[in-house]
Each structure stands twice: as C-alpha cells, then as structure tokens.
Prior knowledge:
Elements: H1 3-22, H2 26-33, H3 37-44, H4 52-62, H5 66-70, E1 87-91, E2 97-105, E3 109-117, E4 122-125, E5 133-140, E6 142-147, E7 150-155, E8 159-163, E9 168-171, E10 178-185
Antiparallel strand pairs: 1-2, 2-3, 3-10, 4-9, 5-8, 5-10, 6-7, 6-9
Amino acid sequence: MSDLDLLTQSLARNVRRWRAERGFTLEALAARAGVSRGMLIQIEQARTNPSLGTVVKIGDALGVSLPTLLDYEQGPRVRVVPADQAVRMWHSEAGGHGRLLAGTEAPGPLEMWDWRLMPGEHSPSDPHPVGTVEILHVTAGLLTLSVDGEEHRVSAGASASFEAHLPHTYGNDGEVPMEMVMTVSVPPVR
C-alpha cells in the first residue's frame, strides 16, 4: 500500500471515529466544516484524496489535529517522529513546502510545523476557529506575515504569535528561502 493510500485509509477511519465520538451527523459535520455532505461521504469511504484545506476544516470542526486525523498507528504516550517520517502536507513548484512535524491533543489540537517558502511565494490560510493561536519562529530569511490585512516583517531569529481566527498569509518577499517552525493551537470542541 502506498503512503497516499495509507493516509487516505487513515483519514477515512479517523474522520468516522471522531465524528461518532463527537456525536455529529454527516450533515452537522458538513455544516461545521463548511464542506459538502458528499465530500464527507467520499472521505469516510476512502474514495477521495481531499485538499489540505478541506482536511484542516474537518479537523477544526472536529476539534482534532491533523496528526490525529492522519495517524495510522495507536502509539504510546511518547511518540517520536523520525525526520524521514514527517508528513509533507504541501509543496510548490518553486520548492516551498510545509511539513507537519508532530501534534497532540492537549486539551485541543496542538500541531508543530516546519515551513519553507521560496522567494516570491505566498501561502494564504483560511481563518481557524475563534481561540486558535499560532506561534512561529523564523530560522532563515524574512517572513512577511499578513494578519487581517496588516503586514508584519519577522526576520531570522525572531518569533511572532497571533490570533489565527483572522485571515492570514505567510509570504517571502525576500531574495533567499524563508524557513520557520510554527505551532498551531486550536481550542477543544465544546
């Protein structure tokens, strides 16, 4: 089974599990996530490979992290993710990428990411649920962080945090690759 097949099967199983645990009908989850009921059915039957944006919306609606939705092993309380097993969630033709390094439920989803944006690349993000906070640390280059239309420059060695329920975009307006480590903390579903 390929990595993609494994992830598709894991996503199907975990969306069904968490939807049942939360007591959500397909209609309720579709409304909360802003995706169609048909898309959820396809995901739960492992008949589609949804976009990262769709998976994030479903995770936010369920109140679980991406690693939880994509986890294919029930592991011990300590989980080590070897460097070669970090999940590359997106990449661009220019060479930019986002890797999901680790995540947990504590008390809501908490994720850690490794991002690289090439010069000229910009990556917009849909707003997350109210109460979501992102913290990032730039390790190389210069990040142009736009939050609710206001730009902030974050240089190598500097960090930033912000309320991520607002529209936000990560950008590299510099001439060298920008690299950062970022955490995303989503409040638990109530």
